[in-house]
């Protein structure tokens, strides 16, 4: 059996960090990475949805990963999402990620065209072959990708020895159970939807990767601690409070990741910039939502930590 312990735990999805002109800021990437090291999370999921990956160029995504690795290598487990909407660019990012020594690469299926499953499998396997010494994680997010990971496709992908599991961001918790039961202990399933962290963990997910973890990693670490200790009443209460924070983060006119970055500015002193168009920028009125969300996180920390 493979040793998957380095993937088990709380793994925040990394945010895109921009300078005042909207370009990737190496300094801000390093600052955010240092913040996560200090918070003692298990690892980072880089260049995924939270990193606004589909709006980044290949070069942008290389710069992000290079600067994450300058700080995190040897300190955090790093999973780098490499999927682009074509095989050529995805393979280039996979080669680059392996050259930097990441623990794993990950990929959603190609979007827009609804490809047959054999074409999706070939896409993933072609990417994986480009990074032959690196683990591969399937990213299942059908509500955004438009394609779901079926049990048949998962069975096909498990023939690839580098495939170690699934980042499951589909909404049915049952999917986690199905993937875990089919694959067994030699594979890992990550809970994706942050709002159901405890549900995913209870039904079989050994870790979680989430886009709101970064705004409050210590609260998710506490939640994971409760689950591991079997303190389910405490876990439920904290999950409810976390969910209230998430609903607030989603309540602005502008994009949620813009809200999170401003919350991190208030609570942690981090300057990460805004979001990249066509994601909606925050409005002046959104700062009320930002302030309320920041305060809710402060209050939850006072109550649980």
Describe this structure in words.
Helix content is 49%, strand content 12%. The chain has 305 residues and is α/β, with parallel strands linked by helices. An 8-stranded parallel beta sheet has the order 1-8-7-6-5-4-3-2. Helix 4 links the parallel strand 4 and strand 5. Helix 2 (58-72) packs parallel to helix 3 (87-100), helix 10 runs antiparallel to helix 12 and helix 11 packs across helix 12. It is globular and about 50 Å long.
Could you outline the blueprint of secondary structure elements for this entry?
Layout: E1 10-12, H1 26-39, E2 43-46, H2 58-72, E3 77-81, H3 87-100, E4 104-107, H4 117-130, E5 135-140, H5 142-145, H6 151-157, E6 163-168, H7 174-183, E7 188-191, H8 197-203, E8 207-210, H9 217-229, H10 232-249, H11 256-268, H12 286-304
Parallel strand pairs: 1-8, 2-3, 3-4, 4-5, 5-6, 6-7, 7-8
Helix pairs in contact: 1-2, 2-3, 3-4, 9-10, 10-12, 11-12
| Estimated structural class | alpha/beta
Spatial order of the strands in the main sheet?
A: 1-8-7-6-5-4-3-2
What number is the mean pLDDT? 97
SSE order: EHEHEHEHEHHEHEHEHHHH
**Main β-sheet, in a few words?**
8 strands, parallel
Inertia-based shape: globular
Question: With helices defined by DSSP (H or I, 4 residues minimum), what is the helix count?
Answer: 12
Tell me the total number of β-strands.
8
Strand content: 5-15%
The Cα radius of gyration reads: 18 Å
